[in-house]
């Protein structure tokens, strides 16, 4: 190696290390901020309750399981909001809402708590039992192949035990949650839940909100090797994530996991089970755990991983599909793609938005699908590529219709077709912090919920044949 090559390699290594330190500091800082905010709010609420007679303010209604069940009586299909990676459902992080309170817009909304880093497969299985009830069964073959327990937590009573073909549900998925919903519907079609006669018609509609329908180039930037779409580089942000989540589950502190849970309990990584030697096997030797078998969310968020899921999952002719693809980039006069404004994008996402604009698939690696072009994947929202969010298109294109600002000519929405529109927003605009989304936050969720309520069809067969009478320009656009 020449002196010039050595200096260049050293400089690139130093820049890479600096970028990793900055990225890790920003992400960990934001995580601690969210966690600390939730704990502080919970402590404040407890102190207030302690000052009130009986612990509850006069005139405040206290909900119960029976009351919730009475609301979800099957007369109107519930709307199920499915969180994305690092997300959480109702009951985690104190009173914090992943969907920033959007669930309060309708009295028949469920917000399940699924594994925040578990695979799309495992989360789809958890979602089924959350709704229907029973002990989570990850599947015998899958569990054996991935080295974890077959069974997970038990829901003594499902949150919607009536769920069947006559009592379908609407699903809305943010980010990775969209793929979880799609895989669940395919599992329902394939009859993969033992003891349950299921079909894809249990799902009335699917709405993808900044959904990871075709993967993301950010997975590679954060550390997944594009050569195989699974293994991690030795030094990367995902290695920090790996070490942190393993230690979190190994410590197994009940009070901590009540606030937040990565969802890896079925891998049995607790110190009570594996001890110090087991921790070394997981962290250093890589002999066991989700990161050894690839049964976690990031491999599913690569383009290759999404293509594997999409090759199996259909767009069904009796289900209504829509998607909102977010974008926080723009083209310069010279044709370059750049983030659209420093103040218009979340600090957590700005650096990644810039990197995703410039990222190029390695020349020596086989492309993730036939016809791949780097320029298609430049526009992004800081976490996902806009190209990926519109509709399933890798490896095969699913039926789709773009919905423009000026309407779509009064065409009816038909089941079995993805109606998509692009919104100018970053990946965090519609979750966690409602104020960041501004007016657009309410307009988008109002549009989604309004569409769900208008799709309460008395006869699904008629919908399969002729489609809904909803007009895309009136109902898909948040106006």
From TrEMBL:
Task: Please cite one Gene Ontology biological process associated with this protein.
Answer: translation
Provide any one GO MF term from the record.
Answer: structural constituent of ribosome
Record Gene3D superfamilies: alpha/beta hydrolase (3.40.50.1820)
Domain annotation Lipase-like C-terminal: ranges: 78-192
Query: A single Pfam family, by name?
Result: Lip_C
SUPFAM superfamilies with a match to the protein in the record: alpha/beta-Hydrolases (SSF53474)
Q: Which residues form a coiled coil?
A: none
A Gene Ontology cellular component where this protein is annotated is: ribosome
InterPro entries named in the record: AB_hydrolase_fold, Lip-like_C, Ribosomal_uS2_CS
Return the protein name. Lipase-like C-terminal domain-containing protein
Tell me which species this is from: Panicum hallii var. hallii
């Amino acid at each position: 190696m020449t002196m010039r090559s050595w200096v260049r390699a050293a400089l690139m290594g130093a820049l890479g290390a600096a970028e990793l330190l900055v990225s890790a500091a920003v992400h960990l800082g934001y995580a601690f901020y969210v966690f600390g905010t939730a704990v502080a709010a919970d402590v404040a609420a407890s102190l207030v309750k302690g000052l009130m007679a009986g612990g509850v303010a006069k005139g405040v209604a206290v909900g119960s399981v029976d009351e919730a069940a009475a609301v979800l009586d099957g007369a109107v299909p519930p709307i199920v909001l499915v969180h994305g990676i690092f997300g959480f459902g109702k009951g985690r992080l104190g009173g914090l809402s992943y969907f920033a309170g959007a669930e309060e817009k309708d009295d028949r909304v469920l917000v399940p708590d699924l594994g925040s880093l578990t695979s799309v497969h495992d989360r789809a299985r958890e979602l089924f039992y959350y709704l229907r009830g029973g002990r989570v069964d990850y599947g015998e073959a899958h569990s054996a192949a991935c080295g974890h327990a077959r069974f997970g937590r038990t829901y003594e009573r499902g949150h919607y035990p009536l769920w069947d073909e006559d009592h379908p549900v609407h699903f809305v998925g943010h980010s990775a949650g969209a793929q979880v919903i799609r895989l669940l519907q395919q599992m329902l079609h394939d009859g993969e839940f033992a003891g349950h006669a299921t079909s894809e018609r249990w799902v009335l509609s699917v709405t993808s909100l900044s959904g990871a329908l075709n993967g993301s180039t950010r997975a590679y930037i954060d550390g997944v090797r594009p050569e195989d779409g699974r293994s991690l580089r030795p030094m990367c942000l995902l290695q920090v994530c790996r070490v942190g989540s393993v230690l979190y589950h190994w410590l197994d502190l009940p009070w901590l996991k009540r606030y937040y849970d990565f969802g890896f309990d079925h891998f049995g990584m607790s110190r009570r089970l594996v001890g110090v030697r087991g921790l070394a096997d997981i962290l250093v030797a890589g002999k066991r755990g989700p990161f050894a078998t690839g049964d976690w969310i990031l491999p599913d968020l690569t383009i290759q991983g999404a293509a594997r899921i999409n090759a199996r999952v259909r767009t069904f002719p009796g289900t209504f599909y829509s998607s909102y693809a977010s974008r926080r980039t723009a083209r310069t006069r010279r044709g370059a793609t750049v983030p659209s404004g420093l103040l218009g994008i979340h600090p957590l996402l700005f650096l990644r938005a810039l990197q995703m604009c410039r990222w190029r698939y390695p020349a020596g690696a086989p492309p993730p699908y036939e016809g791949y072009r780097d320029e298609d994947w430049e526009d992004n929202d800081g976490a996902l590529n806009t190209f990926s969010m519109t509709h399933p298109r890798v490896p095969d294109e699913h039926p789709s219709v773009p919905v423009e600002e000026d309407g779509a000519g009064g065409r009816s929405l038909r089941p079995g077709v993805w109606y998509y529109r692009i919104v100018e927003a970053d990946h965090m605009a519609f979750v966690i912090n409602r104020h960041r989304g501004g007016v657009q936050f309410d307009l988008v969720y109002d549009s989604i919920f309004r569409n769900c309520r208008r799709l309460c069809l008395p006869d699904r067969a008629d919908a399969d044949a002729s489609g809904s009478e909803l007009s895309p320009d009136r109902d898909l656009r948040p106006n």
